[in-house]
Design a protein that fits this description.
single chain; disordered C terminus
């Protein structure tokens, strides 16, 4: 019975990895579509988001079956409940990538090369990849490194915002396009936040401790 349960857990892990890989492709496709003005690539990113949504439903169903059909011990319950939380964040990452792709369809052409946007995209893809690797490998140190790396994305967003504000000041007639690029930078910053959430749930699945839960306990004590 336990062997079957372990096999189902392994299948759940594989599906989670697959869902994460779709997110990486969605982010990369959306940003490349932006930088190159490729409407077809933007449409592909939106289609990937639909596949991510389907994966979320499949994994959620898998988790619920594990909870109902098996008798998981405490560590298994932490693992499965963490996955249920993580797929919500992964799905939202797909939504953010789709939102970027939709903005591309409204732009008249490529935004031109933007170093900060490119760097933010690479950084957020790294965060998503590492957070899921940390889960699969049960690597607490890697999960912590993802949480710390969010500062890099936040710094890049601040730099991007400053540059775009200066660009609007110099070329007011280009303001609408610049604001669209700023919104895209904000979506990438949010992707970093969701990857951080995933890493925090990895920490919970391993240790039983979660940052938001600790903050709640501290607030109740005050």
């Amino acid at each position: 019975m336990r062997n079957r349960f372990d096999n189902q857990l392994a299948e759940m892990n594989n599906e989670l990895i697959s869902m994460g890989a779709l997110c990486e492709n969605a982010i990369a496709s959306a940003v490349k579509a932006l930088l190159e003005g490729d409407i077809k690539l933007a449409a592909a990113a939106i289609r990937i988001d639909q596949e991510i949504d389907r994966k979320e439903r499949e994994i959620e169903s898998m988790c619920l079956k594990l909870l109902l059909q098996q008798q998981p011990v405490a560590s298994d319950l932490r693992l499965i409940s963490s996955v249920l939380k993580m797929i919500t964040d992964i799905e939202r990452i797909g939504d953010q990538a789709s939102d970027i792709a939709e903005i591309v369809t409204y732009l008249s052409g490529a935004c031109g090369h933007n170093t900060h946007i490119d760097q933010m995209a690479q950084a957020t893809i790294k965060m998503v990849t590492d957070s899921l690797d940390a889960f699969v490998r049960r690597d607490l140190t890697l999960a912590w490194s993802v949480i710390e790396y969010d500062d890099v994305v936040d710094h890049l967003f601040d730099e991007c915002k400053s540059d775009l504000i200066a660009e609007i000041a110099q070329n007011p007639e280009d303001g609408e396009r610049v604001l669209d690029v700023l919104m895209i930078a904000k979506y990438l910053e949010r992707i970093g936040d969701h990857a951080t959430n995933i890493a925090e749930w990895v920490e919970f699945s391993i240790t039983g401790s979660h940052k938001s839960a600790m903050h709640g306990a501290e607030a109740a004590a005050r």
